Automatic annotation (TrEMBL):
This is Cysteine synthase. Residues 20-296 form the Tryptophan synthase beta chain-like PALP domain. It comes from the Bacteria. Belongs to the cysteine synthase/cystathionine beta-synthase family. It comes from Microbulbifer yueqingensis. InterPro entries: Cys_synth, Cys_Synth/Cystath_Beta-Synth, CysM, P-phosphate_BS, TrpB-like_PALP, TrpB-like_PALP_sf. The keyword Transferase applies. One of its GO terms (molecular function) is cysteine synthase activity. The modification N6-(pyridoxal phosphate)lysine is found at residue 56.
């Protein structure tokens, strides 16, 4: 929005940003103590600094903006999405910015902070049982679309999800490291972040290693999934990931607490897992520049008791 204002003797035009303009360009900071003595540099991309508090702000805005550009949707329409939390909050914000009705479907086991944030932005929330999980939420979203109740953006199969990271997050990391990045570490949920960033970074330097995280069997880590074959996101291309790390829930939670108490980085469980994986990697290599994605902020996990131990 351009605003005219007057200074004696001349007229000037000022361009002020909207909240949508504040998505992206997040800080990249150095790990200070947890890495110990090493020749490596471990850097954290603080995606919790996005306006709705997570890396998902990027694909949420991208999916809606590009759907508009293609003429698929227009303000006033109803959008539907299955989410474990962060994408739902981000979509609720983006829908509020652009004037859409947003219906979000998620497992009832999600933290109260996540549920409250979605409804605060004006979204309608439908809960499925923990047993139905994200698979059940995805099935219900497609069922509702089939009934004509709205359009499913489908972050799991929507190329505008990784596109947000190919065009935004990846170039930011390349620029912020001066092209020195050697390893990229990211949790894998929808896989949009690792697909988009990894693709861009390897185009700049094919030697960059792309490392993804999935939970060990029986572990429950918000934002990271070990999908059944029939629910594997179609945007995921396995051969574009050089290495997959199995992350235990306990290790991820312990690292999330250490990040807050030792580094002053207040982040969620998947971010703890990413840093734990980066530190494992650091023990294997020398003179590397390792970048880990910090997906969100820790404040949306307070009611889970994560930080009470």
């Amino acid at each position: 929005m351009a605003l005219l204002f007057f200074v004696p003797g001349r007229e000037q035009t000022m361009h002020y940003p909207t909240i949508a303009d504040c998505v992206g360009n997040t800080p990249l900071v150095r790990l200070q103590r947890l890495q110990g003595e090493t020749s490596n540099t471990i850097l954290l991309k603080l995606e919790g600094n996005n306006p709705a508090g997570s890396v998902k702000d990027r694909p949420a805005l991208s999916m809606i903006t590009h759907a508009e550009a293609r003429g698929q949707i227009s303000p006033g329409d109803t959008l539907i999405e299955a989410t474990s939390g962060n994408t739902g909050i981000a979509l609720a914000m983006a829908a509020a910015i652009k004037g859409y009705r947003m219906i979000l479907i998620m497992p009832s086991s999600a933290t109260e902070e996540r549920k409250a944030a979605m409804t605060a932005y004006g979204a309608e929330l439908i809960l499925v049982s923990p047993e139905e999980g994200m698979e059940g939420a995805r099935d219900l979203a497609l069922q509702m679309q089939g009934e004509g109740r709205g359009l499913v953006l489908n972050q799991f199969a929507n190329d505008d999800n990784p596109r947000a990271h190919y065009e935004g997050t990846g170039p930011e990391i390349w620029r912020q490291t001066g092209g020195r990045i050697t390893h990229f570490v990211s949790s894998m949920g929808t896989t949009g972040t690792i697909m988009g960033c990894g693709r861009y970074l390897k185009e700049q330097n094919p030697e960059i290693q792309v490392i993804g995280l999935q939970p060990t069997e029986g572990s429950s880590i918000p934002g990271i999934r070990r999908w059944p074959e029939e629910y594997l996101p179609s945007i995921f291309i396995p051969e574009e990931v050089d290495r997959v790390v199995d992350m235990d829930q306990r290790e991820a939670e312990e690292m999330a607490r250490k990040l807050a108490r030792v580094e002053g980085v207040f982040a969620g469980v998947s971010s703890g897992g990413a840093v734990a994986a980066a530190l494992r990697l650091s023990a294997e290599v020398e003179n590397a520049t390792i970048v880990a994605i910090i997906c969100d902020r820790g404040d949306r996990y307070l009611s889970s008791g994560l930080y009470n131990q």
